[in-house]
Design a protein that fits this description.
The protein is an alpha+beta fold. Helices cover about 30% and strands about 25% of the residues. The chain is elongated and about 105 Å long. The chain starts with 17 loop residues before the first helix and ends with a strand.
Length: about 280
């Protein structure tokens, strides 16, 4: 290395120009940002491996639009203790779970102005005595998401979610909305229709009024109740027992449950004057 000396033999120190200082600052800034981004990616892969893996399976299968996604090895026991009273609260829970106190700077969450357009569900035996279950959505241009779900401890199930229930507006698609990944993941806990490998099925149907008295039981949304039913039960009787263990919060809208099983049993579960009412077929 060549060092210039003055007449007294002392090295001459050259000061950086303003442009050089700016370049150095920018280089260090870029390095810090890249390091933070890499650390964030590693954190997401470790803290939300199941969620990240699920998002990679999201695909459009028709122009309705209709999408599918596979979501495996998930656990939501901590979500139950939060007693979220709406789908928006579920989305915010996942944001805070991954990003702690800085979750507000990331996309996700919505103001729910969704209005149902009516739908119906049915369960029947065919001429060969096999079971058939169906659901008709009058969601028009709002996307439908089919989630093939397999929790850590529970039955595998096929779930239908009207993405209007998690804030997707008319004319939007999940592809355009993909940066709001928390809505896509939270949709798994906002189920309105599904059937599991034991051929137990549940449909959430809107109705004029639904009221559930608040007790000391854990408080959950009707959508999350569908998630629990699909994961944990195989018969109509066990479904009724499970719902008896929870208070259903209808702040997000009034609904009743239509449930059926492989034995041909069906029931409509309503919440009238604060109490659960069961009508069996």
């Amino acid at each position: 290395m060549n060092v210039q000396l003055n007449d007294s033999g002392v090295p001459i120190l050259r000061q950086k120009t303003f442009v050089q200082k700016v370049k150095t600052f920018l280089l260090w800034t870029i390095l810090v940002i890249m390091t933070l981004a890499a650390a964030l990616l590693v954190y997401l892969c470790l803290a939300g491996a199941s969620e990240m893996a699920a998002l990679t399976t999201l695909k459009k299968v028709s122009d309705h639009p209709y999408y599918t996604m596979e979501y495996e090895n998930f656990d939501y026991s901590d979500l139950l203790t939060e007693e979220c009273d709406s789908n928006d609260a579920v989305i915010k829970f996942y944001k805070s779970k991954f990003f702690k106190g800085i979750s507000g700077v990331f996309p996700g969450g919505y103001e729910n102005d969704y209005v149902t357009n009516g739908s119906y569900a049915f369960s029947s035996r065919t001429s060969t005595y096999s079971q058939v279950r169906g659901r008709v959505y009058n969601s028009y241009d709002k996307p439908i998401l089919m989630v093939i779900a397999k929790p850590e401890n529970g039955y595998k199930s096929w779930n239908l979610i009207d993405m209007g229930d998690v804030g997707l507006l008319s004319g939007q698609s999940i592809d355009q909305w993909y940066n709001n990944a928390f809505q896509t993941i939270a949709a798994t806990y906002c189920v309105s229709e599904g059937i599991n490998t034991e051929f137990f099925g549940v449909s959430l149907i809107s109705c004029p009024v639904a009221e559930c008295d608040e007790t000391s039981k854990v408080n959950i949304t009707p959508f999350l109740a569908c998630r629990l039913l699909l994961d944990r039960v195989a018969t109509v009787d066990s479904a009724i027992d499970l719902l008896n263990d929870y208070d259903i919060d209808f702040s997000c809208g009034s609904y009743h449950f239509f449930i059926s099983d492989k034995n041909g049993e069906c029931a409509i579960i309503e919440y009238i004057d604060g109490k659960m009412s069961v009508t069996n077929r």
